[in-house]
Amino acid sequence: MIRLTINGQTREVDVPADMPLLWVLRDVVGLTGTKYGCGVAACGACTVHMDGQPVRSCQTLAGDVGDAKITTIEGLDGKAADAVQTAWRNLDVVQCGYCQSGQIMSAIALIAENRNPTDADIEAAMDGNVCRCATYVRIKAAVKEAAKLARA
Q1: Which of 27, 54, 69, 120 would give a disulfide with 109, using CB separation of 3.0 to 4.6 Å?
Q2: 55 neighbors 48 (Cβ within 8 angstroms)
Q3: Residue 14: what pLDDT?
Q4: Which domains does the chain have, with CATH numbers?
Q5: pTM, two decimal places
């Protein structure tokens, strides 16, 4: 049994320690907002927060999580999360939407730490989050808008 704190709730899961966190979240716990994209941490679709920091859940093993707090797209709260979600809606960022949970998780981590990011900060924070529809211009604009909203 592995004990995990996911979205503020303690869960005991009967899984092998080497099972990727992604599959624990999706298949065992039933939180399907975190997406499988590539399985090698190259696309960012599976991004979740571990103690507030974005991590690729496809390459994070359940047994390595320890006492860290996991937050998925379903468990978002706080000013940075509200600002990012509002900006995403206001600027109509989503096209197909598949990558968006990972994009949003990375953007929230950035805005939570930096309420006035430069273009370089945004590019660095969002690097590794691939959008198959190439909505990068809208994503960057939404991150800037979210930063403004979070500062207000």
Answers
A1: 54
A2: yes
A3: 97
A4: 2-75 (3.10.20.30), 79-151 (1.10.150.120)
A5: 0.95
